[in-house]
Specification:
Length: about 280
Protein backbone atom coordinates (compact mmCIF):
# COMPACT_ATOMS: atom_id res chain seq x y z
CA UNK A 1 0.00 0.00 0.00
CA UNK A 2 1.40 3.39 -0.97
CA UNK A 3 0.33 6.14 1.42
CA UNK A 4 1.06 9.84 1.04
CA UNK A 5 0.53 12.90 3.21
CA UNK A 6 0.41 16.39 1.75
CA UNK A 7 -0.50 19.86 2.94
CA UNK A 8 -2.13 20.94 -0.31
CA UNK A 9 -2.78 24.57 0.70
CA UNK A 10 -6.27 24.72 -0.91
CA UNK A 11 -7.78 21.58 -2.41
CA UNK A 12 -10.15 23.43 -4.72
CA UNK A 13 -7.45 25.47 -6.45
CA UNK A 14 -5.17 22.43 -6.79
CA UNK A 15 -7.61 19.57 -7.35
CA UNK A 16 -6.34 18.75 -10.84
CA UNK A 17 -2.67 18.67 -9.81
CA UNK A 18 -3.53 16.56 -6.74
CA UNK A 19 -5.27 14.04 -8.99
CA UNK A 20 -2.27 14.11 -11.35
CA UNK A 21 0.04 13.36 -8.41
CA UNK A 22 -2.14 10.45 -7.31
CA UNK A 23 -1.90 8.95 -10.79
CA UNK A 24 1.77 9.76 -11.35
CA UNK A 25 2.86 8.01 -8.16
CA UNK A 26 0.14 5.33 -8.10
CA UNK A 27 -0.92 6.37 -4.59
CA UNK A 28 -3.47 4.23 -2.74
CA UNK A 29 -4.29 6.61 0.11
CA UNK A 30 -3.69 10.35 0.41
CA UNK A 31 -3.99 12.30 3.66
CA UNK A 32 -4.48 16.00 2.93
CA UNK A 33 -4.19 19.04 5.16
CA UNK A 34 -5.13 22.71 4.83
CA UNK A 35 -7.86 22.00 2.31
CA UNK A 36 -9.35 25.43 3.07
CA UNK A 37 -12.94 24.60 2.24
CA UNK A 38 -16.23 23.47 3.73
CA UNK A 39 -17.40 19.89 3.36
CA UNK A 40 -20.05 20.83 0.82
CA UNK A 41 -17.44 22.53 -1.41
CA UNK A 42 -14.88 19.75 -1.37
CA UNK A 43 -14.26 18.40 -4.93
CA UNK A 44 -15.40 14.83 -4.23
CA UNK A 45 -16.26 14.17 -7.89
CA UNK A 46 -12.73 14.90 -9.13
CA UNK A 47 -11.39 12.11 -6.92
CA UNK A 48 -14.33 9.74 -7.43
CA UNK A 49 -13.66 9.77 -11.18
CA UNK A 50 -10.25 8.22 -10.42
CA UNK A 51 -11.67 5.62 -8.02
CA UNK A 52 -11.07 7.38 -4.70
CA UNK A 53 -13.50 7.71 -1.82
CA UNK A 54 -12.90 10.80 0.34
CA UNK A 55 -13.65 11.76 3.91
CA UNK A 56 -13.31 15.49 4.61
CA UNK A 57 -13.65 17.73 7.64
CA UNK A 58 -13.93 21.44 6.89
CA UNK A 59 -16.01 24.11 8.60
CA UNK A 60 -14.92 27.25 6.74
CA UNK A 61 -12.13 28.58 4.54
CA UNK A 62 -9.46 27.79 7.14
CA UNK A 63 -7.73 24.54 8.08
CA UNK A 64 -9.50 21.43 6.74
CA UNK A 65 -8.30 17.82 6.48
CA UNK A 66 -9.17 14.88 4.25
CA UNK A 67 -8.39 11.24 3.50
CA UNK A 68 -8.87 9.91 -0.04
CA UNK A 69 -8.58 6.15 -0.57
CA UNK A 70 -8.99 3.64 -3.39
CA UNK A 71 -8.58 0.67 -1.02
CA UNK A 72 -11.68 1.25 1.07
CA UNK A 73 -12.78 3.95 3.49
CA UNK A 74 -14.76 3.13 6.64
CA UNK A 75 -15.21 4.09 10.29
CA UNK A 76 -14.70 7.78 9.55
CA UNK A 77 -14.04 9.92 12.63
CA UNK A 78 -14.30 13.71 12.77
CA UNK A 79 -11.63 14.73 15.25
CA UNK A 80 -9.97 12.53 17.87
CA UNK A 81 -11.33 12.05 21.40
CA UNK A 82 -10.00 14.77 23.69
CA UNK A 83 -9.06 17.11 20.83
CA UNK A 84 -8.92 20.64 22.30
CA UNK A 85 -10.57 23.67 20.77
CA UNK A 86 -9.48 27.27 20.35
CA UNK A 87 -10.83 30.80 20.26
CA UNK A 88 -8.80 33.99 20.29
CA UNK A 89 -10.90 35.25 23.18
CA UNK A 90 -10.17 33.06 26.23
CA UNK A 91 -13.65 33.81 27.56
CA UNK A 92 -15.35 32.55 24.40
CA UNK A 93 -16.29 28.97 23.56
CA UNK A 94 -13.15 27.07 22.59
CA UNK A 95 -14.40 25.34 19.45
CA UNK A 96 -12.77 22.28 17.95
CA UNK A 97 -11.23 23.14 14.58
CA UNK A 98 -11.08 21.09 11.37
CA UNK A 99 -7.67 19.58 12.09
CA UNK A 100 -8.15 15.80 12.35
CA UNK A 101 -9.97 13.12 10.40
CA UNK A 102 -9.59 9.38 10.81
CA UNK A 103 -10.62 6.42 8.64
CA UNK A 104 -9.81 2.78 8.08
CA UNK A 105 -8.32 2.11 4.64
CA UNK A 106 -7.31 -1.36 3.51
CA UNK A 107 -7.15 -2.57 7.11
CA UNK A 108 -4.98 0.33 8.30
CA UNK A 109 -6.30 2.96 10.70
CA UNK A 110 -5.17 6.35 9.39
CA UNK A 111 -5.36 9.91 10.70
CA UNK A 112 -4.79 13.05 8.65
CA UNK A 113 -3.65 15.81 11.01
CA UNK A 114 -3.04 19.53 10.74
CA UNK A 115 -1.34 20.53 13.98
CA UNK A 116 -1.86 24.17 15.04
CA UNK A 117 0.91 26.55 13.97
CA UNK A 118 1.48 28.18 17.34
CA UNK A 119 2.02 31.64 15.83
CA UNK A 120 4.37 33.05 18.48
CA UNK A 121 5.67 31.61 21.74
CA UNK A 122 3.88 34.39 23.65
CA UNK A 123 0.55 33.74 21.91
CA UNK A 124 -2.30 31.64 23.34
CA UNK A 125 -2.11 29.67 20.11
CA UNK A 126 1.26 28.28 21.20
CA UNK A 127 -0.23 26.84 24.40
CA UNK A 128 -3.09 25.48 22.30
CA UNK A 129 -0.58 23.78 19.99
CA UNK A 130 1.18 22.08 22.90
CA UNK A 131 -2.11 20.93 24.41
CA UNK A 132 -3.22 19.62 21.01
CA UNK A 133 -0.07 17.53 20.59
CA UNK A 134 -0.13 16.11 24.12
CA UNK A 135 -3.79 15.15 23.87
CA UNK A 136 -3.11 13.53 20.52
CA UNK A 137 -0.40 11.49 22.18
CA UNK A 138 -2.75 10.47 24.98
CA UNK A 139 -5.31 9.29 22.44
CA UNK A 140 -2.83 7.27 20.37
CA UNK A 141 -1.24 5.71 23.45
CA UNK A 142 -4.68 4.62 24.64
CA UNK A 143 -5.50 3.09 21.26
CA UNK A 144 -2.28 1.09 21.17
CA UNK A 145 -2.76 -0.11 24.73
CA UNK A 146 -6.23 -1.27 23.77
CA UNK A 147 -4.99 -3.08 20.66
CA UNK A 148 -1.18 -3.30 20.66
CA UNK A 149 -0.84 -5.11 17.35
CA UNK A 150 -3.04 -2.86 15.25
CA UNK A 151 -1.86 -1.15 12.09
CA UNK A 152 -2.24 2.55 12.83
CA UNK A 153 -0.63 5.64 11.32
CA UNK A 154 -0.93 9.33 12.03
CA UNK A 155 0.38 11.73 9.44
CA UNK A 156 0.27 15.28 8.26
CA UNK A 157 1.65 18.73 8.87
CA UNK A 158 2.92 18.71 12.47
CA UNK A 159 4.37 22.24 12.37
CA UNK A 160 7.34 20.97 14.41
CA UNK A 161 10.96 20.53 13.31
CA UNK A 162 11.99 17.93 15.92
CA UNK A 163 15.75 18.02 15.19
CA UNK A 164 18.21 20.78 14.33
CA UNK A 165 18.90 19.05 11.02
CA UNK A 166 15.25 19.54 10.09
CA UNK A 167 15.82 23.23 9.31
CA UNK A 168 18.15 24.81 6.80
CA UNK A 169 19.33 27.17 9.56
CA UNK A 170 18.23 26.36 13.08
CA UNK A 171 19.39 29.77 14.30
CA UNK A 172 16.65 31.33 12.20
CA UNK A 173 14.12 29.74 14.57
CA UNK A 174 15.68 31.02 17.79
CA UNK A 175 12.86 32.45 19.89
CA UNK A 176 10.26 31.32 17.34
CA UNK A 177 7.79 28.47 17.15
CA UNK A 178 8.39 25.10 15.44
CA UNK A 179 11.73 24.28 17.10
CA UNK A 180 11.24 25.10 20.78
CA UNK A 181 11.95 22.44 23.38
CA UNK A 182 8.31 22.13 24.53
CA UNK A 183 7.16 21.51 20.95
CA UNK A 184 9.91 18.98 20.36
CA UNK A 185 9.14 17.21 23.64
CA UNK A 186 5.47 16.88 22.68
CA UNK A 187 6.45 15.49 19.28
CA UNK A 188 9.00 13.07 20.70
CA UNK A 189 6.43 11.80 23.19
CA UNK A 190 4.44 10.42 20.25
CA UNK A 191 7.25 7.90 19.94
CA UNK A 192 8.54 7.54 23.47
CA UNK A 193 5.18 7.39 25.22
CA UNK A 194 2.59 6.72 22.54
CA UNK A 195 4.78 4.09 20.87
CA UNK A 196 4.82 5.35 17.29
CA UNK A 197 7.73 5.16 14.83
CA UNK A 198 8.67 8.05 12.55
CA UNK A 199 8.82 5.95 9.39
CA UNK A 200 9.13 8.70 6.77
CA UNK A 201 12.52 10.02 7.93
CA UNK A 202 14.47 6.82 7.21
CA UNK A 203 13.70 7.06 3.49
CA UNK A 204 14.15 10.81 3.06
CA UNK A 205 17.58 11.63 4.43
CA UNK A 206 18.74 13.37 1.25
CA UNK A 207 15.58 15.24 0.27
CA UNK A 208 14.81 15.90 3.91
CA UNK A 209 12.79 19.12 3.75
CA UNK A 210 9.02 19.06 3.21
CA UNK A 211 8.12 22.77 3.37
CA UNK A 212 9.61 25.89 1.79
CA UNK A 213 8.07 29.31 2.36
CA UNK A 214 6.93 31.19 -0.73
CA UNK A 215 8.83 34.27 0.45
CA UNK A 216 12.52 35.19 0.14
CA UNK A 217 13.33 32.60 -2.55
CA UNK A 218 13.26 29.86 0.06
CA UNK A 219 12.69 27.05 -2.42
CA UNK A 220 15.33 28.02 -5.04
CA UNK A 221 17.81 28.31 -2.18
CA UNK A 222 16.59 25.05 -0.61
CA UNK A 223 15.94 26.88 2.64
CA UNK A 224 13.30 24.50 3.91
CA UNK A 225 12.19 22.61 6.99
CA UNK A 226 10.99 19.10 7.69
CA UNK A 227 7.58 19.40 9.39
CA UNK A 228 5.46 16.79 7.54
CA UNK A 229 5.66 13.20 8.79
CA UNK A 230 4.20 9.72 8.79
CA UNK A 231 4.25 8.04 12.21
CA UNK A 232 3.28 4.37 12.41
CA UNK A 233 2.49 1.80 15.08
CA UNK A 234 5.19 -0.87 15.64
CA UNK A 235 3.33 -3.48 13.57
CA UNK A 236 2.87 -1.15 10.61
CA UNK A 237 6.33 0.41 10.91
CA UNK A 238 7.92 -3.01 10.32
CA UNK A 239 6.12 -3.12 6.97
CA UNK A 240 7.44 0.23 5.71
CA UNK A 241 9.78 -0.53 2.80
CA UNK A 242 10.44 2.69 0.86
CA UNK A 243 9.55 6.36 0.66
CA UNK A 244 10.34 9.77 -0.77
CA UNK A 245 9.55 13.48 -0.69
CA UNK A 246 8.17 14.67 -4.03
CA UNK A 247 10.35 17.77 -4.33
CA UNK A 248 9.61 18.03 -8.06
CA UNK A 249 5.95 18.69 -7.26
CA UNK A 250 6.98 21.58 -5.00
CA UNK A 251 9.10 22.98 -7.85
CA UNK A 252 6.15 23.13 -10.26
CA UNK A 253 4.35 26.37 -11.09
CA UNK A 254 1.41 27.02 -8.80
CA UNK A 255 2.48 24.34 -6.31
CA UNK A 256 1.66 24.15 -2.62
CA UNK A 257 4.42 25.33 -0.29
CA UNK A 258 4.58 21.74 1.02
CA UNK A 259 5.70 18.61 -0.86
CA UNK A 260 3.99 15.21 -0.69
CA UNK A 261 5.64 12.71 1.67
CA UNK A 262 5.17 9.14 0.39
CA UNK A 263 5.77 5.79 2.13
CA UNK A 264 5.26 2.23 0.84
CA UNK A 265 4.00 -0.47 3.21
CA UNK A 266 4.33 -4.17 2.38
CA UNK A 267 1.11 -5.52 3.89
CA UNK A 268 0.13 -9.22 3.93
CA UNK A 269 -1.92 -10.38 0.91
CA UNK A 270 -5.67 -10.07 1.38
CA UNK A 271 -5.03 -8.33 4.67
CA UNK A 272 -8.68 -7.43 5.18
CA UNK A 273 -9.67 -11.11 4.89
CA UNK A 274 -7.18 -12.43 7.43
CA UNK A 275 -7.35 -9.65 10.02
Amino acid sequence: MRIATWNVNSVRSRASRIVDTLKRHDIDVLAMQETKTRDESFPYDAFAEEGYECAHVGYNQWNGVAICSRVGLSDVAEGFPGQPGFAKDPAAEQRVEARAVGATCGGVRLWSLYVPNGREVTDRHYAYKLSWLWRLGDYVAGELRREPGQRLAIMGDFNVAPRDEDAWNIEFFAGKTHATEPERAAFEALGEEAGLNEVSRQFTKKERFTYWDYQDLRFPRNEGVRIDFQLASPTLAKEATAGFVDVEERAAKGASDHAPVVVDYDLPPNFDDVR
